[in-house]
Amino acid sequence: MSDTAAFRHDKNVPAVYQAFIAAEQAVAAAGVAPRLLHLVKLRASQLNDCAFCVKMHSKEARDDGETNERLDRLTVWRHVADYTPAEKAALAWTEALTQLPAKVDLAPLRAELRAHYSEVEASALTALVAMINLWNRLGVSAH
Q1: Membrane-spanning residues where (predicted)?
Q2: What is the pLDDT of residue 21?
Q3: Which of 6, 58, 84, 86 could form a disulfide with 116 if both were Cys (CB 3.0 to 4.6 A apart)?
């Protein structure tokens, strides 16, 4: 195998890879709406420039009934009326945890999450953002 060949993380560390899958399944079981899960995964994947993940999560979202119009405007979610206040709260949280800006104040973002989601759902969203960032990094490293 060449030094530049893509890593096969699923083969190299299968127990870790399976643990990641199990963690994502636990997040999905926490009660967050599947459409929101897709939006969060897709937005983080866009920010992380993970082409594989963008393609996969766009397809999964469409398969679960998401509209092309909303997906087309996800990158400008703050500036359009396509998303509910609850979705916007989750997308703001996603961007804050994905980009980790040096001077972000998470307190108002947490308050906005609590206005729309239970404590369990907010924790599940936080775990989801962490998981998709992990998957994006694995995906980017393998391509």
Answers
A1: none
A2: 92
A3: 86
